[in-house]
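Researcher: Structure for this, please.
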Amino acid sequence: MVASAQQAVFCATQPDAAVLPILPSRLAGSNTTTAPVLEGAAVASIPSGCASNQNVRVNIHYIQRDNGSGNFGENNDGRPGTPSTAINGYDYAVNLIWACNGNWDQNPAMTLPAGNTTTPLAKRVRLTLNGVYFHRNTSLQPFAVGMNPTAYLVDAANTINIFICGAPPSNPANLSSLPAGSFNGGQASQVTTATTVTAPFANIANGTNPLWTTIQGTWNGYILNNQQPWQMASVVNHEIGHLLGLNHTWYTVPGRGYVDCADAPSNANCWNLNAPAGSNCNDPSKLSNNLMDYTACQCALSVCQVGRVQFNLNGCLQRFVASCDPCIPSGLSLRMPASTCGGVTGIWLDGRGSFIDNAYDLTIQQLDARYNVISTFTTTRWRRIGREQLDALTVFQPFSRYRVQVTTRPGCATMLNDSKTLYFSTGMDGPDCMVPGPSRAGVTNPSFVQPSSAR
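Model: Predicted structure, token format:
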């Protein structure tokens, strides 16, 4: 998409700016510096392209240590010594996105300036979860400003990728040591080259550059303080706010000399009343509740900030929007092996990374060599997808190919079905099927080989 001159003001990084802006947000820390009062830019008008919610696609990634510890896992919460299966990384991701949407749904008036009477506008942003992923990489597990996890991006052209890391260990010599506190925070980043710098302006993609953010403290806060997803929602949304075009309210835009929005007043960065202690934060009238400040209540946006986000989502960032609709669309995340290596039992479809999938239609078709349908099994499941044992539903034939289609049932009248199709075989063509070993003894390669990347 070619941006217009007006769009370029909001959607393009500064032409003379460094290529990797990093916006650290150490939200648990205290900032005792009084922010300067800056001139504001003109208020952005809200475009007419979408009069409803902008539903933005996101992926959640958990960075574990090489041995799988230090974060939520696929089957448990990763608690050292006594992991609990009551919640796992899939469940936490779903709950986190619901909590983020609850934060986007809030529409309070700004508390600054004192006595503010501006009528707030609905933010009109929602997140829809498209997938949940787990990675083992000890070097990337602890959060660090300037870290670069982009090797793990999924569907970066259309989806914001959120990487959940651990807080830095309390003992640098022992990477497994938990921090003293939750250390909630994050950074919003984009990559155009390998150069890493810091810069105080909003981090908006040009062309097909990815949008991603790293978040720290999520798992540590859960382990140490039973911190729940709703307590992390504002941290995640603050970083997404950067990605959608918003600066911190106290930042001066390089080369322009003003903050993004004049109606988002600068403030003393009081985390809460008397935090930090001193005259700057000794009265409730001095506390900000703006999403783009470092405060205990990050829940409000100014008229200009809402307009800026909507302008970008209707323009240069439209590729990240799944739909413009009051209903949040479902996100289907389906995984299964490309081949069962000759087996016809223990065939599992894993849909635990799916979102808003309370009911779905499942179709399993046996195919011939030309992909003609030999047989069809269909069922409707009135629950979340989770893990589905397919061979408990229908009988599979050895050395055959199959097509599996899942279609969600919409939760409201305006929401479209989401459907995905996977192919697999019960042959020996999978990448792990020909590995020699006791489990493969006596197994010969069948005459029929199913391409693992079939259509």
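Researcher: Any notable elements?
Model: Residues 89-105 form the longest helix (17 residues). Confidence is low (pLDDT under 50) at residues 1-10, 12-47, 191-206, 437-455.
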